[in-house]
Amino acid sequence: MPDAPQLDLSADVVDVTAQLVDMESVSRDEALIADAVEQSLSSLAHLEVVRDGNTVVARTDLGRAERVVVAGHLDTVPVNANLPSRLDGDHLHGLGSCDMKGGVAVGLLLAASLPSPSRDVTYLFYECEEIEAEHNGLGRLARTRPDLLAADFAILMEPSSAVVEAGCQGTMRVDVIVRGERAHSARSWMGVNAIHGAAPVLDRLVGYQPRQPVIDALTYREGLNAVSIRGGVAGNVLPDECRVSVNYRFAPDRGVDEALAHVQTVFDGFEIELRDSAPGALPGLERPAAAAFVAVVGGQPRPKFGWTDVSQFSQLGVPAVNFGPGDPSLAHTQAERVPLADLRHCEERLRAWLTPTPSP
Ligand SMILES: [Zn+2]
133 pLDDT band (50/70/90 cuts)? Predict the structure, then answer.
C-alpha cells in the first residue's frame, strides 16, 4: 500500500485546496485522501478524531453552549483531463476545486488552527457523496453514529459562491402508468393504444402551475416535469403499457407524504408508482446559531433549489445551510475552478464566526 500523501496545513487556503485537488479521490477511491486528512488532524491535542470507513470526524469538546458542524465530502466525480490543479491569476482550476475541496480546505484549516473556538465544532469529512445514496458516508453516520452528528446547526461547505443557501427542496420520482391492450397494428380497432392514452398525462404536465412558496423570507420554486417516457412492443403491435416518469421537486414546507398525495391528485385516475424520494430541508434561519452565522457572513441568503445533504442533517433535527467557495454551476464540468477570493472569504468569515470575542 502506498504511503498516504502528507497534507501541509501550515500553508494558506489556496495551497491546501491545491494539495487536496492533487490527491485524486474519485468516489470509492478515497482511502488515501482520508488517510491524509486523518493524519493531519490526529496529532492535534484539541481534537478527538474518529475514522469510519473513509469518513473522518474531528471534534472539539470544550463544553461550549452550542455545537456546530462544518462538513464537506472528500470524493469527486470521475477525472476528465482536469488534473493536476493549475493556478491562473485569480482562479484555481482542477477536478474538485469547486465541488468541493475548497470547502474541505477551509474546514481543515479551521480545525487545525482554532484550538479554542467560540462554539464546539464537529468537523466532518465524508466519503461517497457523488454516487448512490447507499454509499454516502454522512448517511452511514446518520444511521450508525447519530451522536457524532448531534449539533445546533450545520454548515455544508458545498459550492454556493460564498453566499448562504438555506434549506433545500425535496425530490420525488414517480411513474405514471397507462395501460392498454395489445393488438396487431393492421387491426388496431381490436386493441387499446397505451401511448395514446398518455396524452392526458402530458396535458396535465403542460398545464401545471408550480408553486412558489415563501419560507423564512426565501422564495422556493417547485417543478413537475416528465423526465422520460417509455412504451412500445414492436413496430407492428399496439403497445399495452406506457410509463411517463415524472420528477417532482418540492419546497421544504411539504414532506414526502404530502408531496406524493399532491402528485396523486394531479394524476387522479391514473396508476402511480413511487420510484424514489428524498425529503427537503427547512431553512431554519430563525434558530440562534443560524441567525448568528448569517449575521457574521453577511449578504442575503438564497433558497437552495437542488437537493443536498443538508437534508440529512434536517432529518436529524439539525438545521443546516450550504455555504462554500465556488460557483455551483461549474461543479462536474471539465472547466471546474474556484475563485481564490471565494476561498479566502469563506475561511475568513467562518474564522470570524468561530473566534471568541475577547472579553473587555
Ligand atoms: Zn459536492
Answer: confident
1 pLDDT higher than 70: no
Which amino acids are annotated catalytic?
75, 129
At 8-59, the pLDDT tens digits run 999 999 999 999 999 999 999 999 999 999 999 999 999 999 999 999 999 9
- Taken in order of first residue, the domains within the chain and their CATH numbers are 13-167+281-354 (3.40.630.10), 170-278 (3.30.70.360)
Ligand 1 centroid to residue 99 C-alpha, Å: 5
What confidence tens digit (pLDDT) does each residue in 244-297 have? 999 999 999 999 999 999 999 999 999 999 999 999 998 888 888 788 899 998
Q: Which residues 6+ apart lie within 8 Å of 206 measured at CB? A: none
Residue 158 contacts by C-beta under 8 Å, 6 or more apart in sequence? 72, 99, 100, 103, 308, 309, 322, 324, 328
Cα 197 to ligand 1 centroid, rounded to whole Å = 40
Rg (CA), the chain: 24
Which is nearest to 158 in space by CA: 347, 326, 290, 338? 326
Short-list 101, 98, 103, CA closest to 70 = 103
Average pLDDT of the chain, as a whole number:
95
Distance 156 CA to ligand 1 centre (A): 9
Compute the distance from residue 191 Cα to the ligand 1 centre, in Å.
49
Single pTM value for the model: 0.85
CA of 328 from ligand 1 middle (Å) equals 9
What integer pLDDT is reported at residue 282 of this predicted model? 87
What residues have their beta carbon closer than 5 A to ion ligand 1?
A: 99-100, 158
- Ligand 1 centroid–CA 269 distance in Å is 39
For the CA atoms of 113, 119, 125, 129, the dihedral, rounded to the nearest 10 degrees, stands at -140
